[in-house]
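Students often ask what a 'structure token' actually looks like in practice. Rather than answer in the abstract, let us consider Beta sliding clamp, a protein of 370 residues. Its sequence is given first.
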Amino acid sequence: MKFNLIREDLIKILKPIISPLSNKPKLPILSNIALKINNNELLLYSSNLEIDISAKIKIKKQYKPGATTVSGNKLFKICKNLPKKSEINFNLKNNKLLIYFKQSKFSISNIPYDQFPKMQNWEKNNTIYIKKNILNNLIKKTQFSMAKEDIRYYLNGIFLKIQQKKISSVATNGHRLAICEIQVSNDIKKPKSIIIPSKSIIELKKLINYKKKEEKLKIELNNNNIRIYTNNFIFTSRLIKNNFPDYKSTLPKYPNSIIKIEKKIFQDSLNRVSILSNNKIKGVKLIIEKKILTIKINNQLKEEAEEKIEINKQNNKIEICFNIIYLLEIINILNCKLIKMLITDNKSAVQIQKNKEKTSSLYIIMPMKL
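Now compare that with the structural description of the same chain:
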């Protein structure tokens, strides 16, 4: 196995390829990436048994076919620290991958290619095409609400419901909920619902933001996996096999109060009072009375902060408490001038959205006790 590549051509592909690799893999070979030369292309492939990422690079000069696996992080760091626009020479010899550049020489150990977990046989049940910016928005608008290492493992990801006219993304950790619905035109015959794990979502987001250029993504689905083709990579992930909760039942049906607030003013006030938030509880109290919203916060040192904001007139006085981090993350993601809060009482879920009759995204946050 022998080939030459320009440094920049290699490291821009290597960085996403090594991203899912664990520092403490279940098997030593899972810290490696597979390299294989076929025709005039170098195939790079990584796997952590949950996520697979592959890519190809054209080889413009003479090469010798072959295949091996080497440490992804070592290979990336060596190439990254060579001078810009270097032409790097690679040669597999005596169970070592030799890396040359002028007076520099590195020799890194390998594990035979046939021991590397191969990309699984792929049988697709459905294929859809979606613009990159649409998938990016579906993730961006809901990702922050995913659970992290919850024992209800079906919450540790994003729920996607794919229909002919619409794709919905939903994420919840049981205390907050994010919903985004985007109108599309798909050829899918039957609605398909899947849960993509949180770690896969993180890696997928990196890939779809790899280049700012717009493109149409090809997505293939089967009962256990999702595979996404971009211009540069093939991304494959296992799916979470379980039923997602009935999230629509949490939406307030008959709110007693509809509060309208200028987003920037509310956002700035919450950021200021959060300086004195309790390090453990992170609670904030909202007091809504007539045309004033009072924001109160205190901490274990008995320090306090209070701000008042003008709102639309309310007939009922309401005192309600939230996790200020959860509340701010929702406010931050809304791109609008005026937000709307639908409140039933101080114990029920509160809906937050743009001040529009129809909106592509909405958010639910549960009150907390202080």
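One point worth highlighting: The longest strand covers residues 51-58. Ask yourself how you might have guessed this from the sequence alone, and why that guess would often be unreliable.
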